[in-house]
Structures are given as C-alpha cells and as structure tokens.
Amino acid sequence: xxxxxxxxxxxxxxxARGIGRRLPELHTNKVFGQVALRDVTDPVLPGPDWLALEPxxxxxxxxxxxxxxxxxxxxxxxxxxxxxxxxxEVVARVAVVGEAVEGFAPGERVVxxxxxxxxxxxxxxxxxxxxxxxxxxxxxxxxxxxxxxxxGFCRGLPGGWSERMVVHxxxxxxxxxGLSDAQAVLTEPIGVALHGxxxxxxxxxxxxxxxxxVLVIGAGPIGLAVVVAIRLxxxxxxxxxxxxxxxxxxxxxxxxxxxxxGSNRDSALRAAEEVTGAKRxxxxxGKGVVTGGFDVVFxxxxxxxxxxxxxxxxxxxxxxxxxxxxxxxxSVDWTFVWMRELQVIGSVGCGLEPHYGRHTFEVLFSLLExxxxxxxxxxxxxMITHRFSLDAxxxxxxxxxxxxRTGAVKTVFEVGSSS
Length: 419
What we know:
The protein is an alpha/beta fold. The protein folds into two domains: 2-175 and 379-414, Quinone Oxidoreductase, Chain A, domain 1, CATH 3.90.180; 195-346, Rossmann fold (3-Layer(aba) Sandwich), CATH 3.40.50. Helices cover 28% and strands 23% of the residues. It has helices at 10-19, 62-68, 118-121, 127-130, 181-184, 187-199, 221-233, 246-254, 267-276, 304-313, 335-339, 360-373, 393-401, 403-406; strands at 2-6, 35-39, 50-59, 84-85, 89-97, 109-112, 165-168, 172-174, 212-217, 237-243, 259-262, 279-281, 289-291, 294-299, 314-322, 343-346, 352-353, 358-359, 384-388, 410-414. Strands 3, 5, 6, 7, 8, 19 and 20 form a seven-stranded mixed β-sheet that branches. The protein has a six-stranded parallel β-sheet with strand order 11-10-9-14-15-16, sandwiched between helices. A three-stranded antiparallel β-sheet has the order 2-1-4, with no helix packed on it. The longest helix has 14 residues, at 360-373. It is globular, with a radius of gyration of 21 Å. The mean pLDDT is 93.
C-alpha cells in the first residue's frame, strides 16, 4: 500500500532543527527531508480484537508538523519509534472486523482515538489506563509494537496517511449519521480542545460554571476548536481570540468568539486592558505587565511568546491551560505563576471525562447532537481549508509551513471515497 512515512535521521533532524524555519522546503526535499510517500507492507490484524480500516480523510496536525520540522522536544524520543506512517486524525471505513469484535461491520464509518493504552499493547493496565486516561499510559515505551504514545508515531501501528491501518476495538467510535466526513475528521482535534476546556472547570463541571472572561491564544485548529468547545458546552464565558491570519480571524467569529484581536507582540496585553479592564505597568526592561486580567487563558500555540503572554495576562488566582504542545522554551517569565498563584494546567489527548462518565468523543457527539436540535451545529467543516491526495504530500506540508501565504488552517488528505 502507499503511505506517507517518516524516517528519523539524526543528521537530517539537526539540519531541520537548525535552518528549517528559514528554509521550510528542506522538510519535504527528496534528499534532506525525512518524510516521503512510499510503498509499505499492508498491516495485518494483530489479534481477534482488532479491526482493519481504510482511511477516508486524515488530518495534518501540528504534532506531525513539529516532528517533520524537528521542533518537538527530545524528551519525547523514548516514547516514539520510527519509521512510522504519520496521521492520527482519521475518519475511516471499516474493512475487516476481527473475530472478537462486536458492534462493527464492514463499510461503517468510524473515528479513531489514537492513544495507545496498555490494553492495545496487550499489557496489564497501568493506573492511568485503568482510570480511562490512555494518553498518560506509563508503558508507552513497552509492548510488541515498539515505543509510541499514539498511532502515527509508533513503527508497529501505521497512521492514517495511508491506504490501510489497524486499530484495537477500544480505539474506534462510530460516526453519527448526521456528521459528514469533513466534520468527523475533526473529532480528534475538537475532542482534544473539549478535554482541555473541561479540565479548566471547577468540580461543578459545565452546569456549575460561572461567568468568566477567557482568552484563547492562537487560532489554528486547536485554538478554534477551543472556541467551538466552549460554545457547545454552553459556558457563560466571554471569549477573546488572538488570531494571526485573516482566515483565522473570520473563523474565530464564525465559531462564536465574542472578540477577535490580531496577533502581535502587544496584542495579549492590549486585550487584557480592553476586555477585562486590567491595568498595565511598564518595567524598566522587558514587556509590560498587568494587574487583573483574564480568568482563564488557553495557550494553543505552544511558543515561548504565547506561553509568556498567557502567564502575563492571567488574573491573580487565574488559570492557564497549555494545549499548544509547548516544548523547550526560552525567555518565558515564570514570575507570574508564583506571584499571582496561577494554576497552570497541562492537557493532552482524550479519554474518560469525569463530569460525564463517558469518553470525550462520546461527549462531543452528544453535544453536537444537542446543538443540531437547538441553534445548529457550528460550521466546523469550514476549518478545513485545503485537501490533498497522498501523492501531493509535499504541497500539503508546504501549505502548512507557509500559512501566511496559503491561508491554511486545517489540511486533510483525501485517501478514500468521501460521503
């Protein structure tokens, strides 16, 4: 079968990490790049409780781009293995159903929770896996498939940038009939955002949420998905979005942001003043600081600037939720964490949501169903701005590395026939 595969090369990784930002074409170059379309062996079912899937649409995630561009932290290296077929945002059709799998039939549409649990590995569940949190699995470096936290970064479990993949029955969820393939392929990124929003709430959960002023830094797919999740949950929050590009600003409004601010060096501070009434002060050296600020800040960019801004504009006793996959960062001023007693909350993946007692995907589907019966489902499919075939993977990746020129928000590969 054909698949877009990443093969790690330390010299090429260092080259990408060193000059890749200035020369992004290196990442897909035939000589210097680490990713290519290749003919690989079709995966076979590892056991009777597995399914074979044929991807229909597969999204390009910031994690994929970070891996290709050498921007991820070396700390993740023990928990991934290559070569690996990338792609963990997938809507697919069932091709083969294992003998021990019930409730699924060939031809049905499903989405994939890509996190690899102990159960998937065939191991006795660790504490996080027993609690329904496979994204925190303690055995991500163990098992028969090779190290890997999630599908697409594990050499033994190919991802969705391919014509065929295999998944454990615990990883698949049927797509509701009312969702198009374009909506369904966004299940994983919107689920990640929904999980982060739910983690930011008090024990009372969505029904007990109090009015708040919220800042979302970054208007890529995860930042926009945070806006969508807040609105689907019906939270009484005033939402401000920081968006760099015009297409992102338009979508932020379409998805329910109350205000949208162009992203620049001063935008977070200005938003804190204008939206929350925060008072700005200017130190003799460095950026401005404020008293007051936002009740909750979601960092969905993961850069040194975005994390620093998030800490800088959260109010005293406020919360900062890290959703942007931040890694090794320089010039982040952590003074505000202790000076203001901030709660800094890390969030990744999807799993059992304590407020609902169900998996994040199931919660999302129920929220979308409720929205359809009320004011209508937010036009989340508009997030998909570009579609490519697998053999156009170079163009797909370059569209993401040059978003300012291309206007790309969410890029997907069209692999199989779409409904």
